Amino acid sequence: MATSNISDFYLPTILTLVAFLIYRCILYPSIFSPLSKIPTPHWSCSISPVWILWARFNGRENRTLHAAHKQYGPIVRVGPKELSVNSVEAVKTIYQGGFDKHEWYSLFNNYGVPCTFSSAHAKHHSLRKRMVSHVYSKSYINASPALAAQADIIINSRLLPLIQKSTSASQHPHGIDVHSLFCAAAMDFISSYCFGACRSADFIRRKSYRDHWLELYTVRKGYGFFAQELPRLSKALSVVGLDPTPSWVHAANRELEAWCKELSDATIRFLENEGTGEKSAINTADDPVVVRALLAGIEKEYQTSGTASPLYTTAIQKRDLTVASEILDHVLAGQETTGVALTYLSYHLSQSLTLQRDIRTELLTLNPSPKIGPGGKIQPLPDSKQLDNLPLLHAVVMETVRRYAPAGGSEPRVAPRPCCRIGPYQVPGGTRVSASAYNLHRDESAFPSPETWDHTRWLHRRPDSKQNGDDEKSEKDVYRHFWGFSSGGRMCLGSNFAMHDMKLLIAAIYANYTSHIVDDDGIEPTDAYTGHPKSNSLYLRFERVGAE
Ligand code: HEM
């Protein structure tokens, strides 16, 4: 009698629970959810995220999504609560529409403190970004005496002597690893702008420390999967001593953080003493433009909103950590992306002496000329505005960022609650939605033969130059589909800075040297959020061009 009472109670309960789970985990997502109307590239996607997680785990996400969009159209459902989109219109809805960033970005909280890149919520994010966005605007960059002085040191005293030395009889046949060199040059630019030239990384000259630093940076790659995609599982495993992230990755992160914190603290101390103990560095090469702007921004926020500021417990109470967190993000974001773009750009230039000659001819129209003078220096350096307006130089840079999209992976955002429309579909709030430059840049309607590096797509097609008829249409298409720096409120903060330092470096080199491939083994890019050559290297040899 007692047994039958127990089964009378448990059986219906268990059956109800099973029915509920079947409805919740299978029937609702695959039949009743509004997302069920969206095509799935694999039968499991409507009930499980395993298909997309597996592609991510194996470093195949970009290619897998590309194939999915080719077959199933611009909006595909890649998980029960996840969409991938690949159309300019959907990108506009999501990224210009100000959807919040997904928690995926919280891995980029350095020192446990958010930065502009990692802030999820619009309000916090815009307060942070506003503090520094003016020093990264095109007009500020083109006119900054500090940046001009920093560029002079980096190009004339660090880069050109090294390239010239590589042309000597003993070094010439082996060439130099330009991937490492360009990451170093990009780091020297961004770290000078953040900390001032005297505290910059000086990676072009400090090759052994640069190698060590790049090693630390590289070993972390590929190990973000568990922490970013499965954060709760990852935390639970760490608690029981089964942390899926290897200890050397934590050690590398700690060392990179300590490196930046030391430079950041030294810069803050310098600025606190400036005008009292220390001579003012303002507008000189040693001006720490970005840290200066950040400190002023945090102080202004405190004066304006005090303890009511949304940033009170972070940026205001943890000012020095916040500065270090923000700057670490800028130097990490700035060095690899720019270094990778320059590597692929020089790789393509090295395959065509005709294109190198045409670029040199264009560069030599500049006044002052970027030719190396008698002292082995380019003095003065080309005017930034004039340089920016050179059509061929602009075209080769744009095509490189299109074809190789150094930050080309999916950029996850969260659909706002309660729901929104993306294209023809209703999307419930909380759904993870992403687009990627990798995919948008392979849209054949805007970029025929998208795998081909073809700079002529961009010639005479700048939105700021007046065009007519057909050209105007295609001009809009190529620029509308270009997403190398993302778009909307979360667009790259450093896009103008990156375009400026890439153009200046290419001008300084190709006005004076030709480059030739020595070893391009492993040049094909990795499939990742930030891709890079598989070998992490490209060996080129340089030859000095005679007076023309
Ligand atoms: C060729 C070089 C570069 C490329 C291709 C690039 C690309 C991008 C892309 C695609 C994003 C959006 C990422 C996302 O939302 O997931 C981004 C964001 C960002 N980038 Fe860059 N970037 C470059 C250089 C730089 C530099 C030099 C800096 C230095 C300040 C920088 C700082 C940032 C920051 C702070 C964000 C976050 C912006 C926000 O959330 O509002 N980037 N970048």
From TrEMBL:
InterPro entries: Cyt_P450, Cyt_P450_CS, Cyt_P450_E_grp-IV, Cyt_P450_sf, Cytochrome_P450_monoxygenase. The chain crosses the membrane at residues 9-31. Its cofactor is heme. Heme binds at C492. It comes from the Eukaryota. Pfam families: p450. GO terms for molecular function: heme binding; iron ion binding; monooxygenase activity; oxidoreductase activity, acting on paired donors, with incorporation or reduction of molecular oxygen. Signal peptide: none annotated. Keywords: Heme, Iron, Membrane, Metal-binding, Monooxygenase, Oxidoreductase, Transmembrane, Transmembrane helix. PANTHER family: CYTOCHROME P450, CYTOCHROME P450 12A4, MITOCHONDRIAL-RELATED. Belongs to the cytochrome P450 family. This is Cytochrome P450 monooxygenase. It comes from Daldinia eschscholtzii.
